[in-house]
Write a structure and sequence with these properties.
Length: about 500
Protein backbone atom coordinates (compact mmCIF):
# COMPACT_ATOMS: atom_id res chain seq x y z
CA UNK A 1 0.00 0.00 0.00
CA UNK A 2 1.23 3.49 -0.78
CA UNK A 3 0.59 6.16 1.82
CA UNK A 4 0.91 9.85 1.14
CA UNK A 5 1.73 11.65 4.41
CA UNK A 6 1.23 15.39 4.54
CA UNK A 7 2.88 17.81 6.94
CA UNK A 8 0.76 20.97 6.56
CA UNK A 9 1.98 24.53 6.70
CA UNK A 10 2.23 25.41 10.39
CA UNK A 11 4.24 28.51 11.10
CA UNK A 12 4.53 30.56 7.87
CA UNK A 13 5.81 33.60 9.74
CA UNK A 14 9.13 31.96 10.49
CA UNK A 15 11.64 29.70 8.79
CA UNK A 16 10.94 25.98 9.19
CA UNK A 17 12.94 24.65 12.12
CA UNK A 18 10.85 21.92 13.72
CA UNK A 19 10.18 18.75 11.83
CA UNK A 20 6.71 17.29 12.20
CA UNK A 21 8.06 14.63 14.49
CA UNK A 22 4.72 12.88 15.10
CA UNK A 23 4.43 12.31 11.35
CA UNK A 24 8.05 11.14 11.20
CA UNK A 25 7.19 8.37 13.70
CA UNK A 26 4.10 7.41 11.70
CA UNK A 27 6.16 7.27 8.49
CA UNK A 28 8.73 5.05 10.21
CA UNK A 29 6.20 2.44 11.36
CA UNK A 30 4.48 2.36 7.96
CA UNK A 31 7.82 1.78 6.24
CA UNK A 32 8.73 -0.87 8.80
CA UNK A 33 5.47 -2.69 8.07
CA UNK A 34 6.57 -2.95 4.43
CA UNK A 35 4.42 -0.24 2.85
CA UNK A 36 5.49 2.69 0.73
CA UNK A 37 5.52 6.27 2.04
CA UNK A 38 5.53 9.47 0.06
CA UNK A 39 6.00 12.60 2.16
CA UNK A 40 4.67 15.99 1.25
CA UNK A 41 6.37 18.38 3.65
CA UNK A 42 4.58 21.65 3.02
CA UNK A 43 5.95 23.25 6.19
CA UNK A 44 9.50 22.38 5.20
CA UNK A 45 9.43 23.21 1.48
CA UNK A 46 6.86 26.01 1.73
CA UNK A 47 5.12 24.84 -1.42
CA UNK A 48 2.49 27.14 -2.89
CA UNK A 49 -1.12 25.95 -2.89
CA UNK A 50 -0.85 25.18 -6.61
CA UNK A 51 2.28 23.09 -6.08
CA UNK A 52 0.64 21.20 -3.22
CA UNK A 53 -2.43 20.33 -5.26
CA UNK A 54 -0.31 19.33 -8.25
CA UNK A 55 1.75 16.97 -6.10
CA UNK A 56 -1.33 15.41 -4.56
CA UNK A 57 -2.92 15.02 -7.98
CA UNK A 58 0.19 13.26 -9.30
CA UNK A 59 0.43 10.87 -6.38
CA UNK A 60 -0.80 7.33 -6.93
CA UNK A 61 -1.42 6.83 -3.22
CA UNK A 62 -3.98 4.48 -1.68
CA UNK A 63 -4.29 6.43 1.56
CA UNK A 64 -3.63 10.01 2.62
CA UNK A 65 -2.55 10.86 6.16
CA UNK A 66 -2.25 14.33 7.66
CA UNK A 67 -0.74 15.22 11.03
CA UNK A 68 -0.49 18.58 12.76
CA UNK A 69 -1.26 20.72 15.83
CA UNK A 70 -4.58 22.39 16.60
CA UNK A 71 -3.13 25.66 15.31
CA UNK A 72 -3.13 24.18 11.83
CA UNK A 73 -6.94 23.96 11.87
CA UNK A 74 -7.77 26.61 9.28
CA UNK A 75 -5.09 25.52 6.83
CA UNK A 76 -5.95 21.84 7.14
CA UNK A 77 -9.65 22.45 6.67
CA UNK A 78 -8.99 24.21 3.37
CA UNK A 79 -6.50 21.57 2.30
CA UNK A 80 -8.86 18.72 3.07
CA UNK A 81 -11.62 20.31 0.97
CA UNK A 82 -9.22 20.52 -1.98
CA UNK A 83 -7.94 16.97 -1.51
CA UNK A 84 -11.46 15.61 -1.54
CA UNK A 85 -12.06 17.33 -4.87
CA UNK A 86 -8.95 15.81 -6.44
CA UNK A 87 -9.00 12.39 -4.78
CA UNK A 88 -12.57 11.76 -3.62
CA UNK A 89 -12.07 8.00 -3.33
CA UNK A 90 -8.81 7.93 -1.40
CA UNK A 91 -9.42 7.54 2.35
CA UNK A 92 -8.21 10.50 4.39
CA UNK A 93 -6.94 10.04 7.95
CA UNK A 94 -5.73 12.70 10.37
CA UNK A 95 -3.64 12.52 13.54
CA UNK A 96 -1.65 14.77 15.85
CA UNK A 97 -2.90 17.01 18.63
CA UNK A 98 -5.46 18.52 16.22
CA UNK A 99 -7.20 15.14 16.08
CA UNK A 100 -6.64 14.09 19.67
CA UNK A 101 -7.99 17.29 21.18
CA UNK A 102 -11.11 17.80 19.05
CA UNK A 103 -11.94 14.51 17.29
CA UNK A 104 -15.70 15.08 17.23
CA UNK A 105 -15.34 18.49 15.63
CA UNK A 106 -12.74 17.23 13.16
CA UNK A 107 -14.94 14.39 12.02
CA UNK A 108 -18.04 16.53 11.68
CA UNK A 109 -16.60 19.87 10.50
CA UNK A 110 -13.95 18.59 8.07
CA UNK A 111 -14.19 16.18 5.18
CA UNK A 112 -11.91 13.79 7.04
CA UNK A 113 -12.75 10.09 6.93
CA UNK A 114 -10.90 8.98 10.06
CA UNK A 115 -9.24 10.66 13.05
CA UNK A 116 -6.58 9.00 15.19
CA UNK A 117 -6.81 9.79 18.87
CA UNK A 118 -3.64 9.50 20.95
CA UNK A 119 -0.49 7.67 19.90
CA UNK A 120 -0.71 6.57 16.32
CA UNK A 121 2.04 4.01 15.75
CA UNK A 122 -0.08 0.91 16.37
CA UNK A 123 -3.37 2.44 15.23
CA UNK A 124 -2.12 3.29 11.74
CA UNK A 125 -0.78 -0.20 11.10
CA UNK A 126 -4.01 -1.87 12.26
CA UNK A 127 -5.91 0.69 10.21
CA UNK A 128 -3.95 -0.11 7.04
CA UNK A 129 -4.39 -3.85 7.60
CA UNK A 130 -8.13 -3.37 8.05
CA UNK A 131 -8.31 -1.18 4.95
CA UNK A 132 -6.45 -3.77 2.90
CA UNK A 133 -8.63 -6.63 4.08
CA UNK A 134 -11.83 -4.61 3.85
CA UNK A 135 -12.33 -5.35 7.55
CA UNK A 136 -14.27 -3.71 10.35
CA UNK A 137 -12.75 -0.46 11.62
CA UNK A 138 -14.64 -0.66 14.88
CA UNK A 139 -12.00 -3.17 16.01
CA UNK A 140 -9.22 -0.62 15.57
CA UNK A 141 -8.77 1.13 18.91
CA UNK A 142 -8.03 4.85 18.97
CA UNK A 143 -10.04 5.63 15.83
CA UNK A 144 -12.92 8.08 15.36
CA UNK A 145 -15.14 8.33 12.32
CA UNK A 146 -18.71 8.73 11.17
CA UNK A 147 -20.81 5.58 11.44
CA UNK A 148 -24.37 5.68 10.19
CA UNK A 149 -24.02 9.44 9.97
CA UNK A 150 -23.03 9.76 13.64
CA UNK A 151 -19.72 10.26 15.42
CA UNK A 152 -18.25 6.95 16.50
CA UNK A 153 -15.18 6.29 18.64
CA UNK A 154 -13.68 2.83 18.88
CA UNK A 155 -12.26 3.44 22.38
CA UNK A 156 -8.90 4.29 23.91
CA UNK A 157 -5.80 2.52 22.77
CA UNK A 158 -3.29 1.37 25.34
CA UNK A 159 -0.18 3.52 25.54
CA UNK A 160 3.03 2.13 24.12
CA UNK A 161 4.65 0.89 27.33
CA UNK A 162 8.26 1.08 26.17
CA UNK A 163 9.20 3.94 23.86
CA UNK A 164 12.40 2.10 22.90
CA UNK A 165 10.18 -0.24 20.87
CA UNK A 166 9.23 2.38 18.29
CA UNK A 167 11.50 2.82 15.28
CA UNK A 168 13.73 5.84 14.77
CA UNK A 169 11.63 8.60 13.14
CA UNK A 170 11.84 8.61 9.33
CA UNK A 171 13.93 11.78 9.27
CA UNK A 172 15.36 10.81 5.90
CA UNK A 173 12.04 11.68 4.27
CA UNK A 174 12.30 15.32 5.40
CA UNK A 175 14.63 17.97 3.90
CA UNK A 176 16.93 17.81 6.90
CA UNK A 177 20.17 19.07 5.41
CA UNK A 178 18.68 21.63 3.06
CA UNK A 179 16.14 23.09 5.45
CA UNK A 180 15.73 22.05 9.06
CA UNK A 181 19.31 21.58 10.22
CA UNK A 182 20.37 24.75 8.45
CA UNK A 183 17.63 26.84 10.05
CA UNK A 184 18.05 25.43 13.54
CA UNK A 185 20.64 26.75 15.99
CA UNK A 186 22.29 30.14 15.72
CA UNK A 187 23.38 32.44 18.56
CA UNK A 188 25.31 30.32 21.03
CA UNK A 189 24.32 27.14 19.19
CA UNK A 190 26.37 25.77 16.30
CA UNK A 191 24.89 24.62 13.01
CA UNK A 192 23.85 22.07 11.72
CA UNK A 193 21.42 21.96 14.61
CA UNK A 194 18.58 19.50 15.20
CA UNK A 195 15.75 21.39 16.88
CA UNK A 196 13.26 18.54 16.92
CA UNK A 197 14.51 15.69 19.02
CA UNK A 198 11.95 14.05 21.34
CA UNK A 199 12.58 11.43 24.00
CA UNK A 200 9.66 11.68 26.43
CA UNK A 201 5.90 11.46 26.18
CA UNK A 202 3.41 12.47 28.86
CA UNK A 203 3.80 14.58 31.98
CA UNK A 204 2.80 14.01 35.61
CA UNK A 205 1.93 17.67 36.30
CA UNK A 206 -1.42 19.32 35.74
CA UNK A 207 -0.93 22.91 34.57
CA UNK A 208 -4.31 24.30 33.51
CA UNK A 209 -3.18 25.72 30.15
CA UNK A 210 -1.42 22.57 28.96
CA UNK A 211 -3.00 19.75 27.05
CA UNK A 212 -0.69 17.04 28.34
CA UNK A 213 -2.46 16.34 31.67
CA UNK A 214 -5.81 15.80 30.02
CA UNK A 215 -4.36 13.15 27.80
CA UNK A 216 -3.69 11.39 31.06
CA UNK A 217 -0.53 9.91 29.65
CA UNK A 218 1.81 8.23 32.04
CA UNK A 219 5.25 9.75 31.55
CA UNK A 220 7.47 7.47 29.48
CA UNK A 221 10.94 8.05 28.13
CA UNK A 222 13.52 6.55 25.87
CA UNK A 223 16.20 4.70 27.80
CA UNK A 224 19.57 6.46 27.85
CA UNK A 225 20.84 3.90 25.33
CA UNK A 226 18.01 4.63 22.88
CA UNK A 227 18.45 8.36 23.39
CA UNK A 228 22.10 8.07 22.44
CA UNK A 229 21.35 5.77 19.48
CA UNK A 230 19.24 8.52 17.90
CA UNK A 231 21.71 11.25 18.72
CA UNK A 232 24.54 9.23 17.18
CA UNK A 233 22.35 8.58 14.14
CA UNK A 234 21.89 12.33 13.66
CA UNK A 235 25.52 13.02 14.44
CA UNK A 236 26.99 10.53 11.98
CA UNK A 237 24.41 10.79 9.20
CA UNK A 238 23.80 14.52 9.31
CA UNK A 239 26.88 15.84 11.13
CA UNK A 240 24.80 17.72 13.70
CA UNK A 241 26.77 19.87 16.10
CA UNK A 242 23.92 20.50 18.47
CA UNK A 243 20.36 19.63 19.30
CA UNK A 244 17.27 20.69 21.22
CA UNK A 245 15.43 18.10 23.25
CA UNK A 246 11.82 19.17 22.67
CA UNK A 247 10.52 17.01 25.54
CA UNK A 248 8.02 18.70 27.78
CA UNK A 249 9.88 17.35 30.76
CA UNK A 250 13.29 16.03 29.78
CA UNK A 251 14.66 16.23 33.30
CA UNK A 252 11.81 14.39 35.01
CA UNK A 253 13.78 11.15 35.40
CA UNK A 254 16.98 12.32 37.06
CA UNK A 255 18.67 8.93 36.83
CA UNK A 256 18.14 8.84 33.07
CA UNK A 257 19.48 12.36 32.60
CA UNK A 258 22.59 11.47 34.59
CA UNK A 259 23.12 8.37 32.44
CA UNK A 260 22.70 10.34 29.20
CA UNK A 261 25.09 13.06 30.33
CA UNK A 262 27.70 10.53 31.42
CA UNK A 263 27.59 8.81 28.03
CA UNK A 264 27.92 12.14 26.22
CA UNK A 265 30.90 13.11 28.36
CA UNK A 266 32.55 9.69 27.93
CA UNK A 267 32.06 9.62 24.16
CA UNK A 268 33.35 13.20 23.81
CA UNK A 269 30.65 13.96 21.27
CA UNK A 270 31.13 17.66 21.86
CA UNK A 271 27.52 18.45 21.03
CA UNK A 272 25.90 21.64 22.30
CA UNK A 273 22.32 21.26 23.38
CA UNK A 274 19.45 22.75 25.32
CA UNK A 275 16.14 21.61 26.63
CA UNK A 276 13.19 22.47 28.84
CA UNK A 277 13.29 22.13 32.59
CA UNK A 278 11.13 22.69 35.64
CA UNK A 279 12.30 24.92 38.46
CA UNK A 280 11.45 22.33 41.12
CA UNK A 281 13.44 19.57 39.44
CA UNK A 282 16.94 21.02 39.15
CA UNK A 283 19.83 20.92 41.60
CA UNK A 284 23.44 22.06 41.41
CA UNK A 285 24.96 18.62 40.96
CA UNK A 286 22.65 17.78 38.06
CA UNK A 287 23.17 21.15 36.39
CA UNK A 288 26.96 20.84 36.63
CA UNK A 289 26.83 17.44 34.98
CA UNK A 290 24.52 18.72 32.24
CA UNK A 291 26.84 21.64 31.61
CA UNK A 292 29.79 19.26 31.33
CA UNK A 293 27.80 17.19 28.82
CA UNK A 294 27.30 20.23 26.56
CA UNK A 295 24.06 21.73 27.86
CA UNK A 296 24.31 25.48 27.21
CA UNK A 297 20.82 26.62 28.05
CA UNK A 298 17.61 25.62 29.83
CA UNK A 299 14.10 26.92 29.16
CA UNK A 300 11.84 27.32 32.15
CA UNK A 301 8.12 27.99 31.90
CA UNK A 302 8.10 30.44 34.79
CA UNK A 303 4.77 31.94 33.69
CA UNK A 304 4.31 34.42 36.55
CA UNK A 305 5.84 36.00 39.63
CA UNK A 306 2.55 35.88 41.48
CA UNK A 307 1.86 33.10 43.96
CA UNK A 308 -1.85 33.56 43.38
CA UNK A 309 -1.55 33.00 39.64
CA UNK A 310 0.84 30.10 40.16
CA UNK A 311 -1.87 28.53 42.29
CA UNK A 312 -4.59 29.32 39.76
CA UNK A 313 -2.69 27.70 36.91
CA UNK A 314 -1.80 24.70 39.15
CA UNK A 315 1.86 25.10 38.35
CA UNK A 316 3.06 23.21 41.43
CA UNK A 317 6.06 25.48 41.72
CA UNK A 318 6.89 28.51 43.83
CA UNK A 319 8.55 31.85 43.16
CA UNK A 320 11.36 30.84 45.54
CA UNK A 321 12.02 27.76 43.44
CA UNK A 322 12.20 29.95 40.34
CA UNK A 323 14.77 32.23 41.93
CA UNK A 324 16.81 29.32 43.24
CA UNK A 325 16.80 27.46 39.91
CA UNK A 326 17.85 30.54 37.94
CA UNK A 327 20.60 31.36 40.43
CA UNK A 328 21.92 27.80 40.15
CA UNK A 329 21.92 27.93 36.35
CA UNK A 330 23.88 31.16 36.41
CA UNK A 331 26.30 29.72 38.97
CA UNK A 332 27.15 26.69 36.83
CA UNK A 333 27.18 28.66 33.55
CA UNK A 334 23.98 27.43 31.92
CA UNK A 335 21.98 30.20 30.27
CA UNK A 336 18.45 30.22 31.70
CA UNK A 337 15.58 31.30 29.46
CA UNK A 338 12.28 32.05 31.17
CA UNK A 339 8.92 32.41 29.49
CA UNK A 340 5.95 34.20 31.02
CA UNK A 341 2.22 34.33 30.51
CA UNK A 342 -0.14 37.22 31.02
CA UNK A 343 -3.91 37.24 31.34
CA UNK A 344 -4.60 34.04 33.22
CA UNK A 345 -7.62 33.67 35.47
CA UNK A 346 -7.23 36.11 38.39
CA UNK A 347 -4.63 38.32 36.66
CA UNK A 348 -4.64 41.98 37.73
CA UNK A 349 -2.30 44.91 37.34
CA UNK A 350 -0.72 43.93 40.66
CA UNK A 351 -0.04 40.32 39.68
CA UNK A 352 1.47 41.44 36.35
CA UNK A 353 3.87 43.71 38.22
CA UNK A 354 4.75 40.84 40.55
CA UNK A 355 6.05 39.15 37.39
CA UNK A 356 7.99 42.28 36.45
CA UNK A 357 9.49 42.39 39.96
CA UNK A 358 10.50 38.76 39.62
CA UNK A 359 12.18 39.49 36.29
CA UNK A 360 14.04 42.30 37.97
CA UNK A 361 15.29 40.02 40.73
CA UNK A 362 16.33 37.30 38.28
CA UNK A 363 18.55 39.79 36.41
CA UNK A 364 18.30 37.92 33.10
CA UNK A 365 16.99 39.22 29.82
CA UNK A 366 13.20 38.96 30.01
CA UNK A 367 11.56 37.04 27.22
CA UNK A 368 8.17 37.87 25.91
CA UNK A 369 4.89 37.74 27.82
CA UNK A 370 2.50 35.39 26.02
CA UNK A 371 -1.23 35.96 26.36
CA UNK A 372 -2.88 33.02 28.08
CA UNK A 373 -4.59 31.09 25.28
CA UNK A 374 -6.99 28.21 25.78
CA UNK A 375 -6.29 25.20 23.58
CA UNK A 376 -8.82 22.39 23.44
CA UNK A 377 -8.00 19.53 25.74
CA UNK A 378 -6.82 21.86 28.49
CA UNK A 379 -8.47 22.77 31.78
CA UNK A 380 -8.27 26.42 30.75
CA UNK A 381 -10.28 25.64 27.65
CA UNK A 382 -12.99 23.86 29.64
CA UNK A 383 -13.09 26.81 32.03
CA UNK A 384 -13.48 29.22 29.12
CA UNK A 385 -16.29 27.15 27.64
CA UNK A 386 -18.12 26.77 30.94
CA UNK A 387 -17.91 30.51 31.49
CA UNK A 388 -19.24 31.42 28.06
CA UNK A 389 -15.93 32.82 26.87
CA UNK A 390 -15.88 30.77 23.67
CA UNK A 391 -19.05 31.59 21.77
CA UNK A 392 -17.87 29.85 18.61
CA UNK A 393 -15.24 27.12 18.83
CA UNK A 394 -14.58 26.79 15.10
CA UNK A 395 -14.04 30.53 14.88
CA UNK A 396 -11.54 30.33 17.72
CA UNK A 397 -9.63 27.44 16.08
CA UNK A 398 -9.39 29.44 12.90
CA UNK A 399 -7.79 32.31 14.80
CA UNK A 400 -5.02 30.21 16.37
CA UNK A 401 -1.61 30.89 14.96
CA UNK A 402 1.51 32.27 16.48
CA UNK A 403 1.89 31.79 20.17
CA UNK A 404 0.05 34.17 22.50
CA UNK A 405 0.46 37.34 20.43
CA UNK A 406 -3.25 38.12 20.42
CA UNK A 407 -5.87 38.04 23.13
CA UNK A 408 -8.13 35.33 21.81
CA UNK A 409 -9.96 34.85 25.09
CA UNK A 410 -9.77 37.32 27.95
CA UNK A 411 -9.80 35.66 31.37
CA UNK A 412 -9.30 38.87 33.34
CA UNK A 413 -11.65 41.62 34.47
CA UNK A 414 -9.77 44.13 32.32
CA UNK A 415 -10.97 45.06 28.83
CA UNK A 416 -8.77 43.77 25.97
CA UNK A 417 -7.32 47.20 25.29
CA UNK A 418 -6.23 47.67 28.88
CA UNK A 419 -4.72 44.20 29.06
CA UNK A 420 -2.85 44.79 25.82
CA UNK A 421 -1.46 48.09 27.06
CA UNK A 422 -0.59 46.56 30.40
CA UNK A 423 1.51 43.95 28.65
CA UNK A 424 3.34 46.62 26.65
CA UNK A 425 3.96 48.59 29.85
CA UNK A 426 5.18 45.51 31.72
CA UNK A 427 7.55 44.53 28.90
CA UNK A 428 8.94 48.06 28.76
CA UNK A 429 9.48 48.15 32.52
CA UNK A 430 11.15 44.76 32.50
CA UNK A 431 13.45 45.71 29.62
CA UNK A 432 14.34 49.08 31.17
CA UNK A 433 15.25 47.33 34.40
CA UNK A 434 17.33 44.85 32.52
CA UNK A 435 19.24 47.53 30.59
CA UNK A 436 19.85 49.49 33.78
CA UNK A 437 21.18 46.39 35.52
CA UNK A 438 23.41 45.60 32.57
CA UNK A 439 24.49 49.07 31.49
CA UNK A 440 28.23 48.26 31.64
CA UNK A 441 27.70 45.05 29.74
CA UNK A 442 25.90 46.99 27.04
CA UNK A 443 28.57 49.67 26.81
CA UNK A 444 31.17 46.94 26.49
CA UNK A 445 29.03 45.20 23.88
CA UNK A 446 28.65 48.44 21.92
CA UNK A 447 32.43 49.02 21.93
CA UNK A 448 32.93 45.47 20.82
CA UNK A 449 30.55 45.97 17.87
CA UNK A 450 32.29 49.22 16.92
CA UNK A 451 35.66 47.44 17.09
CA UNK A 452 34.40 44.65 14.82
CA UNK A 453 33.01 47.20 12.34
CA UNK A 454 36.33 49.13 12.21
CA UNK A 455 38.28 45.89 11.84
CA UNK A 456 36.06 44.80 8.93
CA UNK A 457 36.45 48.18 7.26
CA UNK A 458 40.20 47.99 7.63
CA UNK A 459 40.25 44.48 6.14
CA UNK A 460 38.19 45.65 3.17
CA UNK A 461 40.55 48.59 2.69
CA UNK A 462 43.59 46.31 2.75
CA UNK A 463 41.93 44.13 0.11
CA UNK A 464 40.96 47.02 -2.12
CA UNK A 465 44.03 49.21 -1.72
CA UNK A 466 46.49 47.26 -3.97
CA UNK A 467 43.86 47.18 -6.76
CA UNK A 468 43.29 50.89 -6.39
CA UNK A 469 47.02 51.57 -6.42
CA UNK A 470 47.57 49.47 -9.57
CA UNK A 471 44.76 51.29 -11.34
CA UNK A 472 46.18 54.64 -10.31
CA UNK A 473 49.62 53.65 -11.59
CA UNK A 474 48.23 52.48 -14.90
CA UNK A 475 45.64 55.18 -15.61
CA UNK A 476 46.78 58.26 -13.80
CA UNK A 477 45.10 60.31 -11.10
CA UNK A 478 42.42 62.06 -13.17
CA UNK A 479 41.07 58.89 -14.81
CA UNK A 480 41.04 57.11 -11.45
CA UNK A 481 39.05 59.89 -9.79
CA UNK A 482 36.63 59.94 -12.73
CA UNK A 483 36.20 56.18 -12.44
CA UNK A 484 35.40 56.46 -8.70
CA UNK A 485 32.83 59.20 -9.16
CA UNK A 486 31.40 57.41 -12.22
CA UNK A 487 32.20 60.24 -14.65
CA UNK A 488 33.07 59.30 -18.26
CA UNK A 489 36.53 60.46 -19.38
C1 LIG B 1 7.18 20.04 18.67
C2 LIG B 1 6.04 20.90 19.15
C3 LIG B 1 5.83 22.07 18.47
C4 LIG B 1 6.55 22.44 17.20
C5 LIG B 1 5.75 21.82 16.04
C6 LIG B 1 6.59 21.27 14.95
C7 LIG B 1 5.77 20.63 13.87
N1 LIG B 1 6.17 20.91 12.65
O1 LIG B 1 4.82 19.90 14.09
C8 LIG B 1 6.47 23.99 17.26
C9 LIG B 1 7.67 24.51 18.00
C10 LIG B 1 6.37 24.69 15.91
C11 LIG B 1 5.26 24.16 18.15
C12 LIG B 1 4.61 25.36 18.23
C13 LIG B 1 3.47 25.52 18.98
N2 LIG B 1 2.90 24.62 19.80
CO1 LIG B 1 3.61 22.89 20.10
N3 LIG B 1 4.28 21.30 20.69
C14 LIG B 1 5.24 20.55 20.26
C15 LIG B 1 5.41 19.37 21.19
C16 LIG B 1 6.51 19.69 22.18
C17 LIG B 1 5.71 18.06 20.55
C18 LIG B 1 4.75 17.63 19.48
C19 LIG B 1 5.15 16.30 19.07
O2 LIG B 1 5.81 16.15 18.07
N4 LIG B 1 4.86 15.32 19.92
C20 LIG B 1 5.33 13.97 19.81
C21 LIG B 1 4.56 13.18 18.86
C22 LIG B 1 5.09 11.78 18.85
O3 LIG B 1 3.24 13.20 19.30
P1 LIG B 1 2.09 13.70 18.36
O4 LIG B 1 2.49 14.84 17.56
O5 LIG B 1 0.87 13.80 19.14
O6 LIG B 1 1.97 12.48 17.34
C23 LIG B 1 1.41 11.22 17.67
C24 LIG B 1 -0.08 11.14 17.44
O7 LIG B 1 -0.74 12.35 17.55
C25 LIG B 1 -0.22 10.50 16.12
N5 LIG B 1 -0.11 11.27 14.89
C26 LIG B 1 0.48 12.45 14.66
N6 LIG B 1 0.40 12.78 13.38
C27 LIG B 1 -0.24 11.80 12.76
C28 LIG B 1 -0.60 11.63 11.42
C29 LIG B 1 -1.29 10.48 11.05
C30 LIG B 1 -1.65 10.30 9.63
C31 LIG B 1 -1.63 9.52 12.03
C32 LIG B 1 -2.36 8.32 11.62
C33 LIG B 1 -1.28 9.69 13.35
C34 LIG B 1 -0.58 10.82 13.71
O8 LIG B 1 0.86 9.59 16.15
C35 LIG B 1 1.99 10.24 16.69
C36 LIG B 1 2.89 9.23 17.31
O9 LIG B 1 2.27 8.57 18.37
C37 LIG B 1 4.00 19.33 21.84
C38 LIG B 1 3.98 18.74 23.22
C39 LIG B 1 3.89 17.25 23.18
N7 LIG B 1 4.58 16.65 24.06
O10 LIG B 1 3.24 16.66 22.35
C40 LIG B 1 3.54 20.76 21.78
C41 LIG B 1 2.09 21.01 21.49
C42 LIG B 1 1.66 20.13 20.36
N8 LIG B 1 2.12 22.40 21.06
C43 LIG B 1 1.10 23.07 21.45
C44 LIG B 1 0.94 24.45 21.22
C45 LIG B 1 -0.26 25.08 21.91
C46 LIG B 1 1.84 25.17 20.44
C47 LIG B 1 1.85 26.67 20.20
C48 LIG B 1 0.54 27.34 20.01
C49 LIG B 1 2.66 27.39 21.24
C50 LIG B 1 2.80 26.74 22.51
N9 LIG B 1 2.09 27.25 23.48
O11 LIG B 1 3.56 25.80 22.60
C51 LIG B 1 2.73 26.80 18.94
C52 LIG B 1 1.90 26.93 17.66
C53 LIG B 1 2.74 27.26 16.48
C54 LIG B 1 1.96 27.53 15.27
N10 LIG B 1 2.30 28.59 14.57
O12 LIG B 1 1.04 26.85 14.94
C55 LIG B 1 0.14 22.22 22.22
C56 LIG B 1 -1.01 21.80 21.31
C57 LIG B 1 -2.33 21.76 21.99
C58 LIG B 1 -3.33 21.21 21.06
N11 LIG B 1 -4.52 20.98 21.57
O13 LIG B 1 -3.09 21.00 19.89
C59 LIG B 1 1.08 21.07 22.67
C60 LIG B 1 0.40 19.71 22.89
C61 LIG B 1 1.79 21.57 23.94
C62 LIG B 1 1.02 21.38 25.17
N12 LIG B 1 1.52 20.55 26.05
O14 LIG B 1 0.00 21.97 25.39
N13 LIG B 1 4.98 23.05 18.85
S1 LIG C 1 3.16 22.82 31.22
FE1 LIG C 1 4.88 21.44 31.39
S2 LIG C 1 4.84 20.74 33.51
FE2 LIG C 1 2.84 21.65 33.11
S3 LIG C 1 1.58 19.91 32.51
FE3 LIG C 1 2.41 20.80 30.61
S4 LIG C 1 4.25 19.67 30.18
FE4 LIG C 1 3.68 19.25 32.30
Amino acid sequence: MKVLLISPLLAPQRKPVDINIGLAYIAAVILKAGHEVELLDIEGYRYTNEEVLEKIKNSNCDLIGIGTLITGYKYVKGLVNEIKKIKPNVPLIIGGSIATSIPEIIVSDMQIDYAVIGEGEKTIIEFIDTLKSNGDFSNVKGLAYKKDGKYFYTGDRELIPNLDDIPIPAWHLFPLKEVYLKNGGGGIFPKPFAAFFLSTRGCPFHCTYCYNPLQNQKIRSYSAARFMEEIRYLRYNYQIKGFYVADDLFIYNRKRVVEICNIMIKEKLNLKWYTTARVNLVDEELLRLMKKAGCLSLCFGVETGSLLILKNIKKQATVDQVEKAIALCKKVGIKPICSYMIGNVGETRETVFESVELMKRLRIRPTHFFFATPYPGTELYDYAKENGKIPNEIELFSMYGEQGEKILVNFTNMPNKELFELRAEAIKKAMDNYYKQNIFRYIFHLFFLIFIAIRNLFRKFVQIFPRFFNYLNKNGFKKTVNKIIGKKA
